[in-house]
Each structure stands twice: as C-alpha cells, then as structure tokens.
Amino acid sequence: MCRGLAALPVTCLERAKGLKTRLGILLHTPELRHRIGTPSKLQLGSRWRDSSREALEWRESFDQLLKSKSGVTAFHTFLKTEFSEENLDFWLACEDFKKTRSKTKLASKANRIFEEFVQNEAPREVNIDHETREITRKNLTGATSACFNEAQAKTRTLMEKDSYPRFLKSASYQDMAKQA
C-alpha cells in the first residue's frame, strides 16, 4: 500500500472500496453508459438515483431482479466475486435460446449451450445433478425450445435459494439500497 493510503483510517479505505464496487456495477450497466464517450456527472447522477430506487425492488423477489437489466448486471457482477457467474450466464443463454424460431439455429444453439454449460467437464459447467444432465442430453436429439427447461429451472432455484440471499446481504447491494 502506498504511504498516502496507509495514513488514512481503515473505515475510509473500506468506504472507498464500497464506492468503487458500486461504481463498477454501474459502469458495467449498459443502460447507464452514454452512447458516445462517458456520461457526464449530471447524467450519471440522475441514472444512479433511478437505478438505486430500482435496487429496492430487487429485494421483493428474485423475479424482480431478473426483470431488471441493471439488476441482472449487478447480480452478475456479484456472482463474479463468488466465481459462479456461469449459473446466470446459463440461465440467460436459455432465455435467449427460447426465442429462437429457426429449427437449424435451434439445434446448433442447443449443442453450443450443452457443450459450454451442461456436459461433464464443460468449460463453464453448471451445478446440476446427473439425472438432469442426462435428461437434457436426451432432449438434444429433438431440440425444441423447451429442451433446457429442467436444467434451467434447477439452476434458477440454486441461484434463488443460495446466491440471491447472499447478494441481498452484500455490501455493494446494501450500499445501493441505502442510496435509494
């Protein structure tokens, strides 16, 4: 640590870390970015207040969090700190997959999602039981928009029961809620 920071009280350093986390979350929120360059202080301030108010709705239910773009971004940032963002990425990939209408695209997307998230030893393997993994593997033979439903539901439940409560207790969320 540099000499200048060492002279500061620990509480100031902790507060600065909290602010850095909150700002990091906001800067990664697509709707908070200005189309060209960085937002002005005035623009960021008004959007910060809107996002902070919205943050209060996130604690009402996990569904409220998932409906909010900035909520998903904040939750994703939190999951990265816990090294479990693959759960949300899988859930989002499944949501996008369900919107696919082309049969050929459906099959190729299904295989890509399965290889990335579901199969054993996948690069971003989600935590699902063997039975669900096998059901999903069998569903790929006749890929429909529902072939990941069971795996997606298990992953969602895991996030809702495990990660979501920790997110609501996290310092970054608590600071956002206080700002509202």
Automatic annotation (TrEMBL):
Superkingdom per UniProt: Eukaryota
Subcellular locations according to the entry: Membrane
Swiss-Prot/TrEMBL keywords: GTPase activation, Lipoprotein, Membrane, Palmitate, Phosphoprotein, Signal transduction inhibitor
Membrane topology field: Lipid-anchor
One Gene Ontology molecular-function label: GTPase activator activity
Principal location class: membrane
Entry's Gene Ontology cellular component terms: membrane
RGS domain residues: 61-177
A Pfam family recorded for this sequence: RGS
Gene Ontology BP term (one): negative regulation of signal transduction
SUPFAM superfamilies, A to Z: Regulator of G-protein signaling, RGS (SSF48097)
Coiled coil regions in record: none
Function: Regulates G protein-coupled receptor signaling cascades. Inhibits signal transduction by increasing the GTPase activity of G protein alpha subunits, thereby driving them into their inactive GDP-bound form. Plays an important role in the phototransduction cascade by regulating the lifetime and effective concentration of activated transducin alpha. May regulate extra and intracellular mitogenic signals.
Protein name, as recorded: Regulator of G-protein signaling 16
Organism: Calypte anna
